[in-house]
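Worked example 3 (structure in, sequence out).
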């Protein structure tokens, strides 16, 4: 059965860090409180891509599951990123057995903490064995995951996924047939691709989640039911308006909301730091720090936000969001 919370804005929750870049448990709780109080979010995805999921240790992944699930229990659905530990550096791939074992262990741990869903990225860190295709690697990995775990399982194809590992319609049909696979987040701006994946999911209970908010308007007719992107954390009401207006046949209104979402997405140089500072300004003490990827050529570290850039984007952010509540 498809969980009801897989609809509308699903927030990729940002991660709170101390000045020494250790995980800030209290800051994380305060950031969640800020999001809960602002409203408009149907579920909270912790250890997300925008939450720097590739910068976590095994123990920190458990810590995030423990803190997030406990704080959201009885208040909102918690989705926990449970992929094994890998920094996405393709020059140093993880041991496949260790990575798969860690993924299963983290999934079980998150479920024991009360997670409403567990999320696993496409395993592009696992190289094919001799005679094995990349798609067979993906399918075998998720067969292992679904064979070991119960409860809702979501698949995440992040931006920049190696093309060899990206799901095709045939692979999507095979993945959606696995037990408990209830959703897939695809980060793509390719309308033809979205249409093909949406068609592959017709008749399935697996939800297509748009992973690129700037094309949510186009993803909805392809079958998307939810969206995960920076705007689902910063400005969920705007993204929700796109969906509700499309469903009501108000295509002009939906396009206007999409233009607002795109303007906000393209105008902020560091949305994570901005939102942490914005939360602190509103009385939710969250520190602005984030981890860097100094020795990883495959991930770009964000540019620090200057005071002037913060104020410029804040004015734009508040003006654009005001009509949407």
């Amino acid at each position: 059965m498809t969980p009801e919370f897989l609809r509308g804005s699903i927030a990729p929750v940002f991660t709170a860090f101390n000045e020494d870049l250790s995980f800030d448990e209290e800051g994380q709780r305060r950031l969640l409180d800020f999001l809960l109080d602002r409203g408009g979010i149907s579920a909270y995805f912790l250890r997300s891509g925008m939450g720097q999921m590739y910068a976590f240790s095994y123990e920190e992944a458990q810590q995030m599951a423990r803190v997030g699930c406990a704080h959201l229990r009885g208040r909102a659905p918690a989705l926990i990123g449970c992929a094994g530990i890998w920094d996405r550096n393709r020059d140093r791939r993880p041991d496949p057995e260790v990575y798969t074992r860690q993924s299963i262990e983290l999934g079980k741990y998150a479920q024991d903490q009360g997670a409403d869903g567990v999320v696993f990225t496409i395993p592009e860190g696992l190289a094919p064995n001799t005679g094995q295709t990349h798609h067979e690697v993906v399918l075998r990995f998720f067969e292992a995951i679904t064979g070991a775990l119960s409860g809702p399982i979501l698949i995440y194809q992040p931006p920049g996924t190696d093309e060899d590992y990206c799901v095709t319609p045939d692979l999507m049909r095979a993945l959606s047939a696995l037990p408990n696979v209830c959703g897939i987040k695809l980060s793509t701006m390719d309308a033809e691709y979205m249409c093909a994946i949406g068609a592959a999911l017709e008749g399935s209970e697996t939800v297509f989640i748009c992973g690129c908010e700037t094309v949510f308007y186009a993803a909805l007719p392809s079958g998307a039911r939810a969206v995960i992107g920076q705007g689902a954390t910063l400005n969920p009401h705007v993204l929700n308006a796109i969906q509700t207006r499309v469903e009501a046949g108000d295509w002009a209104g939906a396009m206007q909301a999409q233009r607002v979402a795109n303007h906000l997405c393209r105008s902020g140089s560091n949305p994570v730091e901005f939102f942490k500072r914005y939360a602190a300004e509103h009385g939710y003490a969250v520190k602005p720090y984030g981890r860097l990827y100094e020795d990883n050529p495959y991930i770009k570290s964000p540019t620090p936000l200057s005071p002037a850039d913060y104020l410029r984007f804040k004015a734009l952010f508040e003006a654009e969001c005001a009509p949407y509540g």
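Notes: The longest strand covers residues 181-186. The first helix runs from residue 25 to 38.
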